[in-house]
Design a protein that fits this description.
441 residues, alpha/beta, N-utilizing Substance Protein B Homolog, Chain A, Alpha-Beta Plaits, Rossmann fold, 18 helices, globular, binds S-adenosylmethionine
Length: 441
């Protein structure tokens, strides 16, 4: 048992160190870390790495107060080992002395061997001064909620009233939402199946076909998952159905489709579209679109292509509906992907509006007169949402912005701005999403 937990700590620390060093995603780092590992280790490795990553910037702030040299001068693996240990101390499931001892032993068994003494000293000092240190860290909302300072500053600039709420929401664990496949079953019937399987769940009445589980589980435990009765999809993502206003006979383009969550939703909701085309620039991610469609017994034309350069793949027949679920800074889904805070920099975010504007311009050229473009992101910055849409509508003579109060069926959540609606992370249990609707005259 000791060996098992020690190995889990080492694997988790190596995964976290890779995110810091190489900027890989937590999912990718975990996948690689677990390839050759004993499968029994997987749950511990996952919870230790998620805990460390989720709390990383709080841990860095604590270490900054304990070390005489800058935290950034420490090797990535040493930082990661300390973050895993600080998470375990916060989690309080393991006695304090055991956490410190394990961190030191893990360091000794890895390339961090020379830092074992430092790890021991820092963690012991933290335990001695914990009350004062924790109180100090909690005073600043950024460090309290484990956010890099630059990110907290940006959120404060865009959301002067809500920014601490947004930081707090990103510091929680997201619930698991399901989308019932209306072609195969009903919400009521599926809730019955979940009940029979001993899985607690409830429907979200305001968003048809959305079901939330009492606690997350492996998809393979979900009744009928393999047969496509349900898919995993956040509530905020499922809200795309309202602004799209799908109808039989429409020609629909999902311009940034992978991994295909919204493509599948579109195909499920309106079986009689004349055509559904799912485009993505990343051929590898398109495999997931095909798998998702196949599992639900759904159909779309899946195309590898750049939505900003449609000449290479578009047949020139305009679309009635275009969904542009644009690549974005993903600040609305940090609670689901806490590694975003470790991997993104302010300059990454600043590059995005230009790409988003190119995609908007290109999508517009493919839209039929009288058609509708739905712009979506899973982020919170004004520059990628309201301000981008504002500039686009102003610069585009045949663009008619459709105010959010006119979107049929939209539930009573999300904050309206001049062009769209922002669901804030945690609101109604959803991730943070932005939607805007522009009709073409
Ligand atoms: C937010 S994700 C889309 C999520 C997807 N709509 C869903 O609901 O599952 C953005 C996608 O845009 C794709 N993308 C980025 N640049 C693109 C481009 N120029 N043309 C087409 N797809 C692009 C990325 O590969 C990524 O899969």
């Amino acid at each position: 048992m000791r060996v098992t937990v020690a190995s889990a700590r080492s694997l988790a620390a190596h995964a976290v160190a890779r995110i810091l060093r190489e900027g890989v995603t937590l999912d990718a780092a975990l996948k690689d870390a677990l390839v050759a590992a004993n499968p029994q280790l997987a749950p511990s490795v996952r919870s230790l790495s998620y805990g460390a990553v989720r709390g990383y910037y709080r841990h860095e702030a604590i270490l900054g107060r304990l070390l005489s040299t800058p935290v950034k001068s420490l090797d990535f693996l040493v930082r990661a080992l300390l973050s895993v240990a600080l998470y375990e101390l916060e989690d309080e499931k393991t006695p304090e002395y055991a956490v410190v001892d394990a961190a030191v032993q893990t360091a000794k068994a890895t390339d961090a061997v020379r830092a074992a003494g430092l790890i021991n000293a820092v963690l012991r000092r933290y335990l001695r001064e914990r009350k004062t240190l924790d109180a100090d860290i909690a005073r600043n909302p950024a460090t309290r909620h484990a956010s890099p300072i630059w990110l907290a500053d940006r959120l404060r600039a865009d959301w002067p009233v809500r920014w601490t709420q947004l930081l707090a929401a990103s510091d929680t664990q997201a619930p698991m939402w399901l989308r019932v496949n209306s072609r195969r079953t009903t919400t009521e019937e599926y809730l019955g199946m979940l009940q029979n399987a001993g899985i607690g769940a409830r429907a979200e009445e305001r968003v048809p076909l959305a079901v939330v589980l009492e606690s997350p589980c492996d998809v393979q435990e979900l009744p009928g998952f393999g047969a496509g009765l349900v898919s995993v999809q956040d509530l905020g993502a499922q809200c795309v159905a309202f602004p799209l206003a799908l109808a039989a006979g429409q020609r629909v383009l999902d311009a940034c489709a992978a991994p295909g969550g919204k493509t599948a939703l579109i195909a499920e909701r309106e079986p009689n579209l004349s055509n559904l085309t799912a485009v993505d620039v990343d051929p590898q991610r398109l495999t997931r679109v095909r798998e998702n469609l196949k599992r639900g017994e759904l159909h779309a034309d899946v195309v590898a292509g750049d939505a900003a350069v449609p000449g290479a793949w578009w047949d020139g027949i305009p679309f009635d509906r275009i969904l542009l679920d644009a690549p974005c800074s993903a600040l609305g889904v940090i609670r689901r992907h806490p590694d975003i805070r470790l991997r993104k920099s302010p300059s990454d975010i600043d590059k995005l509006p230009l790409l988003q504007r190119q995609l908007l311009n290109s999508a517009w050229r493919m839209l039929k007169s009288g058609g509708r473009l739905v712009y979506a992101t899973c982020t919170l910055t004004r520059s990628e949402n309201r301000d981008l849409l504002g500039a686009f509508v102003r610069d585009t003579p045949d663009a008619i912005s459709v105010p959010a109060e006119e979107w049929e069926g939209w539930p009573n959540f999300g904050e309206m701005d001049e062009y769209g609606r922002q669901i804030l992370p945690g609101e109604a249990g959803a991730d943070g999403f932005y939607y805007a609707v522009v009709n073409k005259s």
